[in-house]
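Duplicate of earlier report; Diacylglycerol kinase family protein input re-posted below.
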Amino acid sequence: MYYIIVNPASKSGRGAKIYARIEPVLKEKAVSYEVFFSERAGHVITITKELCSRVPCSPEDPLKLIVLGGDGTLNETLQGISDFSCVAIGYIPTGSSNDMARDLHLPKDPVEILMNILSCKKPQCLDMGQVVYENTTSQLSRHHSSELLTVRYFAVSCGIGFDAAVCEEALASRFKNILNKIGLGKLTYLTIALKQLIAARKVSCDMYLDDSDTPIRLNRFLFVAGMVHQYEGGGFKFCPGANYHDGVLDICVAGDIPKPKILIVLPTAFQGKHYRFHGVDKYTARKLRLVTSAPLWVHTDGEVSMKSSSITLTCGQNKLQMLL
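Output:
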């Protein structure tokens, strides 16, 4: 039995169209399934929680979810799971970023992905991140759901600062919907990034790796991203070589870089060439604590709910079971 969660609004309605393509396949193959359609931000969390509470499952016989949506839809799914050892997820990407699918090298054809999910006999275990918001503000994202959580999981990445501010604006952008309809959704993030870059203010950050009491001091920084996978933001290869099985977060730090120089650095991140520039650094850690001089937006897989000035990221090795 498969339980399918569909975000019909993903990529400006593409989610509904893709589900219409795979539903005949499910019926032709006589697959037992139940489908749920999300109606608003946060609804996927509610659906997942209800399924986890009412459907009997165990590590030997996990609840099989198929998520059809973008990275944000997958992220909401994670927030609703109470026991990850009892849930296996198949993912059919229909978002504008699809960074998870990009790093997993999923096929472009959703029907082919579906057939791979249905034929998967044993889930593959992937790393998954967790962020704890230790100090939050009352400023909420324009896209926040009623499920305001101070602990969130992430499958791809978690960032604070510039990249999260771009995600926060993109989630509420009508411009994104227009570009998605003409197949240019990736330009949304680049366009908003340039706008946010101009408005970025000076904020400092203390960064603690693992259990160190001695911080790495960033007198001014643009963003810090802790990543399980290589890509975020629609194909920016911020952490080339990130391994989603090693139990370690790859960390991209954009420090005190002159704004005009960012215009040169940012495009090179599509090929993962940004570390050649002074002010862009990489680290690895199983735990990352960040304390900033002012509250900033925080994102998990592109989803933004609130601002914080103190967060702790950890990586759970092989915690996420995927039907691949």
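The two ends are 17 Å apart (CA to CA).

Merging into the original ticket.
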